[in-house]
Specification:
Elements lengths: L1 E3 L6 H7 L2 H13 L2 E2 H8 L3 H13 L3 E8 L2 E8 L4 E3 L12 E6 L6 E11 L24 E13 L7 E13 L11 E7 L2 E8 L24 E8 L2 E4 L2 E4 L14 E7 L9 E4 L10 E9 L1
Parallel strand pairs: 1-5
Antiparallel strand pairs: 2-4, 3-4, 6-17, 7-8, 8-15, 8-16, 9-12, 9-16, 9-17, 10-11, 10-15, 12-13, 13-14
Helix pairs in contact: 1-4, 3-4
């Protein structure tokens, strides 16, 4: 997901999308997954030089990812869509005073608690950690280096570092991470109800549409099994004074002030597929070195004086 926090920051995106031809480029890429410059130019009836210019604008805006493939007939540039959503914030957020923002990132293997059930497993960018479908390996020392973790039901919980200045209170917490379901093998149509829990309070549920494996994730290592999870969707979870939101859409009325969080508070965030979920389709979390976004759990906390 591409998150534009103000209109000025979105100018390049708006310009890139303000062309019917570039919209047609995106439609072709969404339909075919990945295409080279020659294929795109041929389909749209323009020269390769003109296509290069259009792709450059989409790449600069972060909408398209371009990689170079080395083959027997020279190098070719492959293009694919790099985002699943563009979220534009029109109304300024009252708590988003840039002087009072704390940013941190939690690697996905740094969970503080877990309870998982097969199918399950975890891996670093170099190898599987232990054996798949054996929850004991979630306690293995190498789990701190995990770049991907998955399970059918259960949870993982993280302690978010709280290093706010003294005498401040928390007004908003925003997390972004790459998620998908966990199907046997892969299945793009495999819904799963994933609950978000802050300090033992359920703040909402998001239904993951599927477990994606149609193409290799941009950062997924080459040794990874082709019929396993390849990438997920970048989701933004936000709890503020108005409630809890996923990608800007409200999922519950639970708001940040229910928790009375300040600079001394412990912040525990849990991702869970509960036993009583309507869709028990598992959970995969993609971290650094896997999927399409190459990140852990990014956290942004807005705070103000007490």
């Amino acid at each position: 997901m591409l998150h534009i926090k103000n209109l000025d920051d979105g100018l390049e995106v708006f310009k890139a999308l303000g062309s019917e031809l570039r919209i047609n480029v995106l439609k072709l890429l969404l339909e075919n997954g990945e295409m080279n410059m020659n294929e795109l130019a041929s389909n749209l009836g323009i020269t390769n030089g003109a296509m290069t210019s259009h792709i450059k604008k989409l790449e600069q805006a972060g909408i398209v990812k371009v990689t170079t493939e080395h083959g027997g007939h020279g190098n070719q540039k492959l293009c694919r869509v790099a985002v699943d959503k563009v979220l534009v914030e029109i109304e300024a957020q009252e708590t988003e005073n840039e002087k009072n923002i704390y940013n941190t990132e939690v690697q996905i293997g740094h969970y503080s608690d877990y309870k998982v059930f097969p199918t399950c497993g975890l891996a670093t960018v170099n190898a599987l950690v232990g054996e798949v479908d054996d929850p004991r390996y979630f306690a293995h020392p190498d789990r701190i280096n995990a770049g991907i973790i998955w399970f059918t039901r259960g949870y993982v919980e993280y302690i978010i570092p709280n290093l706010l200045p003294s005498a401040t209170k928390i007004d908003q917490i925003t997390l972004s991470l790459e998620l998908s379901s966990e199907a046997p093998g892969v299945n793009n149509d495999w819904p799963s109800d994933i609950s978000f829990i802050l300090n033992d309070v359920k703040i909402g549920t998001w239904t993951s549409p599927g477990d994606y494996g149609d193409v290799q994730g941009i950062f997924t290592p080459d040794w990874w099994f082709p019929n396993w999870n390849q990438y997920g969707l970048l989701k933004m979870i936000e709890i503020n004074r108005k409630g809890t939101f996923v990608d800007g859409l409200k999922i519950s009325d639970v708001n940040i002030y229910r928790f009375n969080l300040d600079y001394k508070s412990t912040i525990r965030f849990r991702f869970e597929v509960p036993d009583d979920a309507e869709n028990i389709g598992g959970l995969t979390i993609f971290g650094s070195g896997f999927g399409n976004y190459n990140q852990g759990i990014k956290v942004r906390i807005a705070y103000s004086p007490m």
